[in-house]
Each structure stands twice: as C-alpha cells, then as structure tokens.
Automatic annotation (TrEMBL), chains A, B:
<comment type="similarity">
    <text>Belongs to the ROK (NagC/XylR) family.</text>
</comment>
<dbReference type="InterPro" id="IPR000600">
    <property type="entry name" value="ROK"/>
</dbReference>
<dbReference type="Pfam" id="PF00480">
    <property type="entry name" value="ROK"/>
</dbReference>
<dbReference type="InterPro" id="IPR043129">
    <property type="entry name" value="ATPase_NBD"/>
</dbReference>
<protein>
    <submittedName>
        <fullName>ROK family protein</fullName>
    </submittedName>
</protein>
Length: 316, 316
C-alpha cells in the first residue's frame, strides 16, 4: 500500500492506494498557509500516520509516499522550489517528511504531472504508455507521460505546456509572456471571450443565460448557447476550440502521445468538446497517414487522478 | 571502435569513431536513388567493411554501427518508415545490414536527432546532458537530447520541432499545415522574407548585393545589409529573429535544455545571430529568475555531428 498526496492551495488530499490502483481510504486536511512550511509538513506527516493507522498499518509498512505539488519541484532534492499557491521557496519537503516518518521511499512531482500519471495508471488513458494531460482550468496545466513515466524535461522547470505560446504579440498571460496557450485555452480565457462576445452582441442568448450579469458567465454558457443556435456563442466556442486544437497539434507533433486527455472545468463538456477538437486537430498533425494521431478524450478520475498518480511515483 | 553513418539524399558519410569521439577515418559513398533499397544498403555494408578494413579491423571487431537517417525511423524494428529523400517506405535497414555484416550491435535514429547527440557528445554542448538542436536549412530540423539520450517522444514520428506552429493561419508549410516554425525560421523562409523586402524597397542595398537578381538572394545578404545600416535588411533580420526566438522560448518552456544549439546555413552568422536571439528569448521564458534559461550557441561539428551522433547510438 502506498499513500498518494495531492497537495493543493486549499487542502492536502491523502489517499491510501492499493496495488490495483484503487483508493481504499482517504483523508483531507486543510492547507495552512499562515504557518511556516515545516508546520504544514508536520500536519501532513500526522495525517499519513492517521490514514495508515485507520487501515491497521504502521508507517514503516507503507511501500512509499508520493506527492503531487503545484509549482516547480526538484525531484533530485525532493524540494518544492517555488509555488505561487503557498509562497514557499526551496522547501525540502521530502527530507522534512522523513524526519517525521522515517526513511520510507518518497517521491515528488508537479501536480499536473501526477494527474497525468494517474490517468495513465487507472483512468482515461489506462493501457497506454504515452499520454498528455491538459487541464483547462484557471490556467492550463500540462503533464506528459512517456513510456509509463512522467516526462520531466531537462533541467528543473520544464514541461510548462500551457506556456507554449501560440499567438505572437497575443494576449498577456499570467506568466508575463504574450500569446501563451494558457491565455487562449484556459477556462478563464473562455470566460473572457464569452463576456466580450456577449457584450458585443446584446441579442446573444448568453446575456440571458447569465442573468444579464456578465460576472456570472461560466464555461458552460457559451457551449449551451452554441447548442441552442446562438451565433455569438457558436463563434466563441469555435474560436476557443481553434486555439486549443492548434496547441494540441503542436504537442502531438512534439511528443506523439497515444492519447491526449483534457481535464479541468471545460472538460465537463466531454464529446461536445472533444469531437470537434479531434477533427480540427487531425488536419494539423505532421505526417498525415504516416503519423499516428492521438484520440482526444476527457479525464475520468477527476480529483482522484492526482492522488493515484502521486502514489504511482513509488514503484512497486 | 564504432562506425557512424550519416545517410543523406546525396551521399552516405561513414566515419570510424574512437572512444574519445574522434573520427579516425571517413568514407563517403553516393546514395543511389535509382536502385531498390536493398542494393543501396548492400553498398553501405561494403563501405563498412572497406572502412573497417583500412584500419585493420574485421567487421565483427566493431563495437557497433549507428545510422542517422532523414525521415521517420522506427527504432524498435530498425526500419526507415518513410523518407521524402529516398522514396523509401518501411525499409528494415538494420536487419538487411545484419544479413551482410553479421549480428553486431546496430541502432538507428533520425538524422537531426543524431546530429543533436553528436553536438552533446563532442561538440557545442559537450558536457551538457540536455540540449536541443535546431537546424536552420531548407527546413527546420530538430533534435532533443535529454539525460544524454535522444528524446524520441511517445509513438513513432514525434519530435517534429519544426512543425510546432507559431502563427495561426500563417504561411503554408511544406507539411501542409499553416504557420509552422519551419515556415518562418528556415533558411528558405529567410530568403522568402528577404526577397519580398528587397522587391518592396528598391532603395535597399539587398538588391545590389544580389546583383539585381532576387533569385541570387542568400541567407547572408540580409545580415550583411542590416550590418551596413540598411533599414529593409534590418527589418528582415529582426522579423526572422523574432519568429525564431518565439519558437525557441516555447521549446525551453517545454524541454528546459541546458543549451540550445543552432545548425544549418543560417547558423553561419554565429554571435551575429545568437546574441540578439538570446535577449529576445530570455524575456519569453517561463519562471523568470526561477527558471534556468539555456544559452543559445551555434553548432561546431558541422557535418561531423551526424556521424559522431550516429556512432554514439551504440553504447560502449
């Protein structure tokens, strides 16, 4: 049994994961941002002991503990180098955890990477060895699994798929660069485009759907409007999908995954999103009939992907 | 001693490579495109025997033979799946070579990948373990080395860095897609831009530099014109470098290499090209001071990179 921890800005979700990649027990603790990192890590250690104990396990009986963390992590030193969410810098989380829990196997990865691994081990890409996960949420997170292992790039800080730019001199991204995929394919970008279109088209049903208050726009509305035959809604969805397909085709040309998995809020659209995306993407992939073009699917593990992926950082 | 073979559309260049990654002997044979693949592979086998023989080696004394080939190769089956240059399809080159040479270790990679490995083993990125090579020639070839090994992506046909697109609905690329890096950063693209600018600006010194015949435009002229203070030439170089920097920043965000190496015709500009590129690229890389930004350098092995890289497909 391994424990996978999905560390987030709000909570740390711990799961006890068996050899079939089933989560047999869960424990969620709040992420305390107002205390030094060491105290929060102590909370995590106590939670590990508690979760293991509930299943009659001593900590040293665990096969290992894996952590998926936001931000930039350094696997070699077991550290979180930097995370927006916690304002942590250079926190050697694994060695601190080992002080509390003893020398059991531990590993750490970026949370999007861990979620990608989770989907490969037990989710939408089960059976594949090579897959890319893009999470379409506040930002665009990316995780790549190649030959069953997380692709981490060269030196620390790679695999920022959301910060592959697709438009020269385009929209300003949160990272400071212009034109990033994140600035066009995140849920936030979809909302920006939908609000603009609704404001420019007072006749659009999107205005009605958000009760006349554009602040109440959500990622479902443009898709619903498009399905109802609303021209402005259709245009928003079309534009959003064109940008996303452009980015996905780039990633297929670079990584040649067996599957592309979409997660995050926008992925709730399922085939509504993936069917047109697949068509748009195919004609942009290199090699035509000589190239294998990955099916685009939506994630199926939801929040559990991060836990299962984190647990699978530990080889059993 | 290993033999590295750089297979090209015009010739196959064989090199006998020692453990210090020095080429101690070379042999070049023409690539015969008018005969069945098997005959050309027989020529290669004979050339291997001849080159080894010149240094007193029996074929079976070789530690191995590595091949860098244009097109899409399948390492698992040792085949060239498809190559524009030869009109070959599904040619099991390694098993045919073994028929002629016996069961010595052999491996195959794409030629740009092999050149990247060569530069890491003995060239511009010697000492690094992670590097990207972009060749700026007729097209834009790309090779990635991670942890000292060629990055091959997931399923066959990945790592087409030149076909990462950077402009939506942009220039038509030879691959059929619009907006590829290749359509903006190849030597061919530079010539296209220079010819257009020269035609639009009769006062530009670029017209004089190509003797009034735009067909005689070459990749050096816009750089020379820019250095001489020609506004149109400066604009061409600036635009070319902006596109290239945009693509390089994407690759840094994805792969986080320790070095980016530029090869091919345009790389003859050396610091003239790399110094402004470095500045343009830096402000587009994710993570600012938290991220390691690779130095951009030009290749230093020239044609030998492919031979040395091919030889290094064989582990000794």
């Amino acid at each position: 049994m391994r424990i996978g921890i999905d560390l987030g800005g709000m909570s740390a979700k711990l799961g006890l994961v068996n050899e079939k990649n089933e989560i047999v027990g869960k424990l969620v603790i709040p992420t305390r941002l107002d205390v030094p990192a060491r105290e929060m890590i102590h909370d995590m250690a106590e939670a590990v002991k508690k979760l293991a104990g509930e299943y009659g396990l001593q900590t040293e009986e665990l096969e290992g503990i894996g952590i998926g963390s936001p931000g930039t992590v350094d696997q070699k030193t077991g550290s979180i180098l930097y995370s927006n969410n916690f304002s942590w810098e250079d926190v050697p989380i694994l060695s601190i955890l080992k002080e509390y829990l003893g020398p059991i196997p531990m590993d750490i990865a970026n949370d999007a990477d861990a979620a990608a691994l989770g989907e490969v081990c037990a989710g939408a890409a089960k059976g594949a060895k090579n897959a890319i996960l893009l999470t379409l949420g506040t930002g665009v997170g990316g995780g790549v699994v190649l030959d069953g292992k997380i692709f981490r790039g060269g030196v620390t800080g790679g695999c920022e798929l959301g910060h592959m730019a697709i438009v020269e001199n385009g929209q300003l991204c949160t990272c400071g660069r212009r034109g990033c995929l994140e600035a066009y394919a995140s849920a936030s970008a979809l909302l920006r485009m939908a609000r603009k279109a609704a404001a420019e088209h007072p006749e659009s049903v999107m205005n009605e759907m958000c009760g006349g208050d554009l602040e109440k726009m959500n990622g479902k509305i443009p898709f619903d409007a498009a399905a109802a035959g609303d021209a402005a809604g259709y245009q928003v969805v079309e534009e959003y999908e064109n940008h996303l397909a452009f980015g996905i085709a780039n990633l297929i040309n670079i990584f040649r995954p067996e599957m592309v998995i979409l997660g995050g809020g926008v992925a709730a659209q399922k085939e509504n999103l993936t069917a047109p995306l697949q068509k748009k993407t195919e004609c942009m992939c290199f090699g035509g009939r000589h190239g294998q073009i990955a099916p685009i699917v939506t994630s199926c593990l939801g929040n559990d992907a991060g836990i299962i992926g984190a647990a699978n950082l530990i080889e059993i």
